[in-house]
Amino acid sequence: MYRLIILLFFFTLPLQAATQLEIADAYVAEAPPGLDVTAAYMTINNPTSADKYIVSLRSDDFDAVEMHTTDIEGGIAKMRKLDRLVIPANSSVSLTPGGIHLMLHKPKKRLHAGELITLEINEADHTLHGLVLPVKKMRPGTDTHHHHHHH
Q: How far apart are CA 88 and CA 53, in angstroms?
């Protein structure tokens, strides 16, 4: 009898594996006064055995949220909008200044360091992730969004 209980416990462990994305180190860059766009950064980990696809984002604090990547063309950084972001199985994707990042357009109010914004991430399978991100001051010299040219 005891052996059966131990075996049942052992075989149920894999069912406890993570089934959704894990998001860490998420924050929004404080935009300089007069700028109506800012960026958000984070690390998205997919601990599952299947690729995950982020297809849309929204925030009550902004008119629009888009996914962008930065390409270097002729020494100039240019942003390109992404229709979806793939988070490969058992892997992580880092959203960083100068790389893949979220563009947050037209804030409803001026955001200052220390404030919080809400963000909703929608996967292709309709899984929603609600996040609360702090607004942080960017260090001088950090490659931020407002230097780039859009396609």
A: 8
